[in-house]
User: What shape does this take?
Amino acid sequence: MRRYARIIGTGSYLPPRRLTNNDLAAELAQRGIETSDEWIVERTGIRARHFAAPDVTSSDLALQACRQAIEAAGVSAQDIDLIIVATSTPDMVFPSTAAILQHKLGIANGCPAFDVQAVCSGFVYALSVADAMIQTGAAKRALVVGAEVFSRILDFNDRTTCVLFGDGAGAVVLEASEAPGILAAELHADGSHVGILCVPGHVSGGNVLGDPLLKMDGQAVFKLAVGVLDKAARATLDKAGLTEADIDWLIPHQANIRIMQSTARKLKLSMDKVVVTVDQHGNTSAASIPLALDHGVRSGQVKPGQTVLLEGVGGGFTWGAVLFKM
Ligand SMILES: CC(C)(COP(=O)(O)OP(=O)(O)OC[C@H]1O[C@@H](n2cnc3c(N)ncnc32)[C@H](O)[C@@H]1OP(=O)(O)O)[C@@H](O)C(=O)NCCC(=O)NCCS
Assistant: This one.
Protein backbone atom coordinates (compact mmCIF):
# COMPACT_ATOMS: atom_id res chain seq x y z
CA MET A 1 0.00 0.00 0.00
CA ARG A 2 1.35 3.43 -0.96
CA ARG A 3 2.22 5.72 1.91
CA TYR A 4 0.98 9.25 1.14
CA ALA A 5 1.71 12.60 2.74
CA ARG A 6 -1.59 14.35 3.53
CA ILE A 7 -2.15 17.95 4.55
CA ILE A 8 -4.02 17.80 7.87
CA GLY A 9 -3.82 21.46 8.89
CA THR A 10 -2.99 24.87 7.45
CA GLY A 11 -2.14 28.22 9.02
CA SER A 12 -0.88 31.65 8.06
CA TYR A 13 0.15 34.98 9.48
CA LEU A 14 0.48 38.51 8.15
CA PRO A 15 2.23 41.24 10.11
CA PRO A 16 -0.28 43.92 11.20
CA ARG A 17 1.17 46.86 9.23
CA ARG A 18 -0.86 46.96 6.00
CA LEU A 19 -0.03 49.40 3.24
CA THR A 20 -2.43 50.06 0.38
CA ASN A 21 -0.95 51.16 -2.92
CA ASN A 22 -1.86 54.74 -2.02
CA ASP A 23 -0.09 54.42 1.36
CA LEU A 24 3.04 53.08 -0.37
CA ALA A 25 2.85 55.70 -3.13
CA ALA A 26 2.73 58.44 -0.45
CA GLU A 27 5.83 56.98 1.27
CA LEU A 28 7.71 56.67 -2.02
CA ALA A 29 6.75 60.23 -2.98
CA GLN A 30 8.77 61.43 0.02
CA ARG A 31 11.83 59.90 -1.68
CA GLY A 32 10.92 61.53 -4.99
CA ILE A 33 9.72 58.18 -6.44
CA GLU A 34 6.50 58.37 -8.42
CA THR A 35 3.97 55.54 -8.63
CA SER A 36 0.20 55.17 -8.43
CA ASP A 37 -2.52 52.78 -7.34
CA GLU A 38 -3.72 52.75 -10.95
CA TRP A 39 -0.34 51.62 -12.38
CA ILE A 40 0.19 48.94 -9.75
CA VAL A 41 -3.34 47.50 -10.02
CA GLU A 42 -3.31 47.49 -13.82
CA ARG A 43 0.11 45.81 -14.21
CA THR A 44 0.01 43.43 -11.24
CA GLY A 45 -3.41 43.19 -9.58
CA ILE A 46 -1.81 44.16 -6.25
CA ARG A 47 -3.83 46.54 -4.03
CA ALA A 48 -2.11 46.12 -0.65
CA ARG A 49 0.74 44.33 1.13
CA HIS A 50 1.87 43.84 4.73
CA PHE A 51 5.30 44.85 6.03
CA ALA A 52 6.83 43.46 9.23
CA ALA A 53 8.17 45.79 11.93
CA PRO A 54 11.99 46.19 11.78
CA ASP A 55 12.62 43.82 14.72
CA VAL A 56 10.36 41.04 13.42
CA THR A 57 12.04 38.11 11.68
CA SER A 58 10.90 35.35 9.34
CA SER A 59 10.87 32.86 12.23
CA ASP A 60 8.55 35.21 14.19
CA LEU A 61 6.05 35.21 11.32
CA ALA A 62 6.53 31.46 10.82
CA LEU A 63 5.86 30.82 14.52
CA GLN A 64 2.36 32.35 14.32
CA ALA A 65 1.51 30.51 11.09
CA CYS A 66 2.77 27.19 12.53
CA ARG A 67 0.79 27.55 15.76
CA GLN A 68 -2.36 27.96 13.66
CA ALA A 69 -1.50 25.02 11.38
CA ILE A 70 -0.72 22.75 14.36
CA GLU A 71 -3.99 23.75 16.03
CA ALA A 72 -5.96 23.14 12.83
CA ALA A 73 -4.30 19.72 12.50
CA GLY A 74 -5.31 18.84 16.07
CA VAL A 75 -1.86 17.52 16.92
CA SER A 76 0.73 18.44 19.49
CA ALA A 77 3.86 20.35 18.48
CA GLN A 78 5.89 17.55 20.10
CA ASP A 79 4.50 15.10 17.50
CA ILE A 80 6.19 17.01 14.66
CA ASP A 81 9.20 15.00 13.47
CA LEU A 82 10.41 17.17 10.57
CA ILE A 83 10.53 20.94 10.03
CA ILE A 84 11.30 22.49 6.64
CA VAL A 85 11.23 26.25 6.18
CA ALA A 86 11.31 27.79 2.72
CA THR A 87 12.75 31.30 2.90
CA SER A 88 15.04 33.69 1.07
CA THR A 89 15.05 36.09 4.01
CA PRO A 90 16.37 33.90 6.84
CA ASP A 91 16.85 35.28 10.36
CA MET A 92 20.61 34.65 10.21
CA VAL A 93 23.26 33.44 7.78
CA PHE A 94 23.17 30.35 9.98
CA PRO A 95 21.74 28.45 11.80
CA SER A 96 18.66 27.79 9.71
CA THR A 97 15.40 29.58 10.32
CA ALA A 98 13.91 26.09 10.76
CA ALA A 99 16.19 25.38 13.74
CA ILE A 100 15.30 28.75 15.28
CA LEU A 101 11.61 28.02 14.67
CA GLN A 102 11.89 24.56 16.25
CA HIS A 103 13.13 26.18 19.46
CA LYS A 104 10.45 28.92 19.40
CA LEU A 105 7.76 26.25 19.00
CA GLY A 106 9.20 24.47 22.05
CA ILE A 107 9.82 21.28 20.07
CA ALA A 108 12.54 19.48 21.99
CA ASN A 109 12.36 16.03 20.41
CA GLY A 110 15.50 16.45 18.29
CA CYS A 111 13.65 16.25 14.95
CA PRO A 112 15.49 17.37 11.81
CA ALA A 113 14.99 21.03 10.86
CA PHE A 114 16.39 22.73 7.78
CA ASP A 115 15.76 25.53 5.29
CA VAL A 116 15.11 25.27 1.59
CA GLN A 117 16.22 28.12 -0.65
CA ALA A 118 14.35 28.25 -3.93
CA VAL A 119 12.99 31.81 -3.63
CA CYS A 120 9.34 32.00 -4.78
CA SER A 121 9.31 28.26 -5.63
CA GLY A 122 10.53 27.54 -2.10
CA PHE A 123 7.26 26.23 -0.68
CA VAL A 124 6.69 23.85 -3.59
CA TYR A 125 10.28 22.61 -3.18
CA ALA A 126 9.88 22.19 0.59
CA LEU A 127 6.55 20.39 0.26
CA SER A 128 8.01 18.04 -2.31
CA VAL A 129 11.02 17.22 -0.09
CA ALA A 130 8.76 16.58 2.91
CA ASP A 131 6.51 14.38 0.75
CA ALA A 132 9.51 12.31 -0.32
CA MET A 133 10.69 11.94 3.29
CA ILE A 134 7.22 10.86 4.42
CA GLN A 135 6.90 8.38 1.54
CA THR A 136 10.21 6.73 2.46
CA GLY A 137 9.27 6.54 6.14
CA ALA A 138 11.95 9.05 7.21
CA ALA A 139 9.21 11.24 8.70
CA LYS A 140 5.62 10.81 9.89
CA ARG A 141 4.44 14.31 10.64
CA ALA A 142 6.09 17.31 9.03
CA LEU A 143 5.73 21.03 9.40
CA VAL A 144 6.32 22.75 6.05
CA VAL A 145 6.54 26.51 6.15
CA GLY A 146 7.06 29.46 3.81
CA ALA A 147 8.11 32.63 5.65
CA GLU A 148 9.51 35.89 4.36
CA VAL A 149 10.39 39.43 5.37
CA PHE A 150 10.97 40.49 1.76
CA SER A 151 10.61 44.17 2.72
CA ARG A 152 14.18 43.88 4.10
CA ILE A 153 15.68 43.24 0.66
CA LEU A 154 13.60 45.72 -1.35
CA ASP A 155 15.16 48.77 -2.96
CA PHE A 156 12.65 51.52 -2.16
CA ASN A 157 14.35 53.71 -4.76
CA ASP A 158 13.39 51.21 -7.49
CA ARG A 159 9.69 51.56 -8.27
CA THR A 160 9.76 48.67 -10.73
CA THR A 161 10.29 46.18 -7.87
CA CYS A 162 9.45 47.69 -4.45
CA VAL A 163 5.73 47.89 -5.17
CA LEU A 164 5.46 44.17 -5.89
CA PHE A 165 6.42 42.40 -2.66
CA GLY A 166 5.18 41.91 0.90
CA ASP A 167 5.90 39.98 4.12
CA GLY A 168 4.08 37.01 5.66
CA ALA A 169 4.13 33.31 6.46
CA GLY A 170 2.09 30.21 5.76
CA ALA A 171 2.41 26.65 7.02
CA VAL A 172 0.97 23.17 6.64
CA VAL A 173 1.16 20.03 8.76
CA LEU A 174 1.72 16.94 6.61
CA GLU A 175 0.99 13.47 7.97
CA ALA A 176 1.71 9.96 6.68
CA SER A 177 -1.53 8.38 5.50
CA GLU A 178 -2.92 5.47 3.52
CA ALA A 179 -5.52 7.82 2.05
CA PRO A 180 -4.36 9.92 -0.91
CA GLY A 181 -2.70 13.22 -0.13
CA ILE A 182 0.12 14.44 -2.36
CA LEU A 183 -0.29 12.68 -5.71
CA ALA A 184 2.62 14.02 -7.76
CA ALA A 185 5.25 16.75 -7.81
CA GLU A 186 7.64 18.31 -10.32
CA LEU A 187 10.67 20.44 -9.47
CA HIS A 188 12.98 22.27 -11.89
CA ALA A 189 15.75 24.84 -12.00
CA ASP A 190 17.74 26.58 -14.72
CA GLY A 191 20.70 28.44 -13.25
CA SER A 192 21.51 30.14 -16.54
CA HIS A 193 18.88 32.75 -15.58
CA VAL A 194 20.43 33.69 -12.20
CA GLY A 195 20.75 37.35 -13.24
CA ILE A 196 17.11 38.12 -14.08
CA LEU A 197 15.92 37.94 -10.47
CA CYS A 198 18.48 38.06 -7.68
CA VAL A 199 19.90 39.72 -4.59
CA PRO A 200 23.55 39.65 -5.63
CA GLY A 201 25.20 40.75 -2.36
CA HIS A 202 26.86 38.47 0.18
CA VAL A 203 28.65 38.71 3.50
CA SER A 204 32.44 38.63 3.39
CA GLY A 205 34.95 39.49 6.08
CA GLY A 206 32.31 41.27 8.17
CA ASN A 207 31.05 43.40 5.26
CA VAL A 208 28.32 43.10 2.69
CA LEU A 209 29.94 42.72 -0.71
CA GLY A 210 27.82 43.53 -3.75
CA ASP A 211 24.28 44.88 -3.74
CA PRO A 212 22.12 43.35 -0.99
CA LEU A 213 18.85 44.55 -2.60
CA LEU A 214 16.54 42.80 -5.05
CA LYS A 215 17.19 43.19 -8.79
CA MET A 216 14.73 42.04 -11.43
CA ASP A 217 14.23 42.11 -15.17
CA GLY A 218 10.43 42.05 -14.91
CA GLN A 219 9.67 41.31 -18.54
CA ALA A 220 12.17 38.44 -18.78
CA VAL A 221 10.73 36.93 -15.57
CA PHE A 222 7.20 37.34 -16.88
CA LYS A 223 7.91 35.51 -20.16
CA LEU A 224 9.81 32.64 -18.55
CA ALA A 225 7.22 32.20 -15.78
CA VAL A 226 4.27 31.84 -18.12
CA GLY A 227 5.99 29.15 -20.21
CA VAL A 228 7.41 26.99 -17.42
CA LEU A 229 4.28 27.04 -15.24
CA ASP A 230 2.15 25.53 -17.97
CA LYS A 231 4.69 22.76 -18.66
CA ALA A 232 5.11 21.95 -14.96
CA ALA A 233 1.34 21.78 -14.45
CA ARG A 234 0.87 19.36 -17.34
CA ALA A 235 3.81 17.16 -16.34
CA THR A 236 2.49 16.91 -12.76
CA LEU A 237 -1.02 16.02 -13.91
CA ASP A 238 0.45 13.40 -16.31
CA LYS A 239 2.41 11.80 -13.48
CA ALA A 240 -0.79 11.39 -11.48
CA GLY A 241 -2.77 10.18 -14.49
CA LEU A 242 -5.10 13.19 -14.27
CA THR A 243 -5.99 16.07 -16.60
CA GLU A 244 -6.75 19.75 -16.11
CA ALA A 245 -10.46 18.84 -15.94
CA ASP A 246 -9.74 17.09 -12.61
CA ILE A 247 -8.44 20.25 -10.93
CA ASP A 248 -10.81 21.75 -8.36
CA TRP A 249 -8.42 24.53 -7.34
CA LEU A 250 -5.30 26.05 -8.84
CA ILE A 251 -3.19 27.84 -6.23
CA PRO A 252 -0.33 29.49 -8.08
CA HIS A 253 2.46 31.56 -6.63
CA GLN A 254 0.90 34.97 -6.11
CA ALA A 255 3.28 37.22 -8.05
CA ASN A 256 1.13 38.94 -10.59
CA ILE A 257 -2.54 38.49 -11.56
CA ARG A 258 -1.62 38.60 -15.26
CA ILE A 259 0.74 35.60 -14.91
CA MET A 260 -1.98 33.77 -12.95
CA GLN A 261 -4.65 34.55 -15.57
CA SER A 262 -2.38 33.40 -18.36
CA THR A 263 -1.60 30.11 -16.57
CA ALA A 264 -5.29 29.49 -15.90
CA ARG A 265 -6.17 30.23 -19.53
CA LYS A 266 -3.58 27.76 -20.81
CA LEU A 267 -5.01 25.09 -18.49
CA LYS A 268 -8.54 26.01 -19.65
CA LEU A 269 -9.50 26.82 -16.05
CA SER A 270 -11.84 29.69 -15.24
CA MET A 271 -10.54 32.20 -12.68
CA ASP A 272 -13.31 30.90 -10.37
CA LYS A 273 -11.05 27.90 -9.80
CA VAL A 274 -8.00 29.98 -8.89
CA VAL A 275 -7.36 31.09 -5.31
CA VAL A 276 -6.28 34.75 -5.52
CA THR A 277 -4.64 36.64 -2.66
CA VAL A 278 -2.09 38.69 -4.62
CA ASP A 279 -4.45 41.68 -4.44
CA GLN A 280 -4.23 41.75 -0.62
CA HIS A 281 -0.76 40.28 0.04
CA GLY A 282 1.42 41.24 -2.94
CA ASN A 283 4.18 38.77 -3.73
CA THR A 284 5.32 37.22 -0.44
CA SER A 285 7.77 34.86 -2.21
CA ALA A 286 7.97 31.45 -0.48
CA ALA A 287 5.06 32.41 1.79
CA SER A 288 2.61 33.21 -1.00
CA ILE A 289 1.35 29.69 -1.78
CA PRO A 290 0.77 28.52 1.82
CA LEU A 291 -0.83 31.91 2.60
CA ALA A 292 -3.19 31.44 -0.35
CA LEU A 293 -3.86 27.81 0.55
CA ASP A 294 -4.74 28.73 4.13
CA HIS A 295 -6.97 31.53 2.86
CA GLY A 296 -8.68 29.05 0.53
CA VAL A 297 -9.25 26.56 3.35
CA ARG A 298 -10.42 29.07 5.95
CA SER A 299 -12.73 30.88 3.52
CA GLY A 300 -14.41 27.54 2.74
CA GLN A 301 -13.32 27.57 -0.92
CA VAL A 302 -10.95 24.58 -0.67
CA LYS A 303 -12.78 21.56 0.79
CA PRO A 304 -11.72 18.09 1.94
CA GLY A 305 -11.51 15.59 -0.93
CA GLN A 306 -10.87 18.24 -3.59
CA THR A 307 -7.93 18.12 -6.01
CA VAL A 308 -5.56 21.06 -5.74
CA LEU A 309 -2.62 22.05 -7.92
CA LEU A 310 0.05 24.33 -6.40
CA GLU A 311 2.52 26.04 -8.72
CA GLY A 312 5.64 27.96 -7.86
CA VAL A 313 8.10 29.98 -9.92
CA GLY A 314 10.92 32.29 -8.97
CA GLY A 315 14.56 33.26 -8.81
CA GLY A 316 17.15 30.73 -9.85
CA PHE A 317 15.29 30.32 -12.17
CA THR A 318 13.25 27.71 -10.27
CA TRP A 319 9.80 26.32 -10.80
CA GLY A 320 7.62 23.38 -9.88
CA ALA A 321 4.18 22.07 -9.04
CA VAL A 322 2.56 19.83 -6.44
CA LEU A 323 -0.77 18.08 -6.97
CA PHE A 324 -2.71 16.79 -3.97
CA LYS A 325 -6.04 15.66 -2.61
CA MET A 326 -7.12 17.88 0.25
C1 LIG B 1 7.28 44.24 -13.17
C2 LIG B 1 6.12 44.37 -14.14
C3 LIG B 1 4.82 44.59 -13.38
C4 LIG B 1 6.35 45.58 -15.02
O1 LIG B 1 5.30 45.69 -15.94
P1 LIG B 1 5.62 46.01 -17.47
O2 LIG B 1 4.34 46.06 -18.16
O3 LIG B 1 6.63 44.98 -17.93
O4 LIG B 1 6.22 47.43 -17.35
P2 LIG B 1 7.63 47.99 -17.85
O5 LIG B 1 8.73 47.45 -17.04
O6 LIG B 1 7.69 47.81 -19.35
O7 LIG B 1 7.45 49.52 -17.55
C5 LIG B 1 6.48 50.27 -18.21
C6 LIG B 1 6.56 51.70 -17.73
O8 LIG B 1 6.08 51.78 -16.39
C7 LIG B 1 7.04 52.45 -15.58
N1 LIG B 1 6.97 51.90 -14.22
C8 LIG B 1 7.64 50.84 -13.71
N2 LIG B 1 7.29 50.67 -12.44
C9 LIG B 1 6.38 51.61 -12.13
C10 LIG B 1 5.65 51.93 -10.98
N3 LIG B 1 5.76 51.22 -9.85
N4 LIG B 1 4.80 52.96 -11.04
C11 LIG B 1 4.64 53.69 -12.15
N5 LIG B 1 5.32 53.44 -13.29
C12 LIG B 1 6.17 52.41 -13.28
C13 LIG B 1 8.36 52.17 -16.25
O9 LIG B 1 9.32 53.11 -15.89
C14 LIG B 1 7.99 52.24 -17.70
O10 LIG B 1 7.92 53.60 -18.06
P3 LIG B 1 8.47 54.10 -19.50
O11 LIG B 1 7.61 53.36 -20.49
O12 LIG B 1 8.25 55.56 -19.44
O13 LIG B 1 9.89 53.66 -19.53
C15 LIG B 1 6.00 43.12 -15.05
O14 LIG B 1 7.09 43.03 -15.90
C16 LIG B 1 5.91 41.87 -14.24
O15 LIG B 1 4.97 41.65 -13.51
N6 LIG B 1 6.91 40.96 -14.35
C17 LIG B 1 6.95 39.76 -13.57
C18 LIG B 1 7.47 40.11 -12.22
C19 LIG B 1 7.27 39.02 -11.23
O16 LIG B 1 6.21 38.47 -11.16
N7 LIG B 1 8.31 38.74 -10.46
C20 LIG B 1 8.31 37.81 -9.43
C21 LIG B 1 8.36 36.45 -9.98
S1 LIG B 1 8.59 35.34 -8.68
Q: What stands out?
A: Residues 35, 39-40, 43-44, 120, 159-160, 163, 216, 218-219, 221-222, 225, 255-256, 259, 283, 313-314 surround coenzyme A (CB under 6 Å).
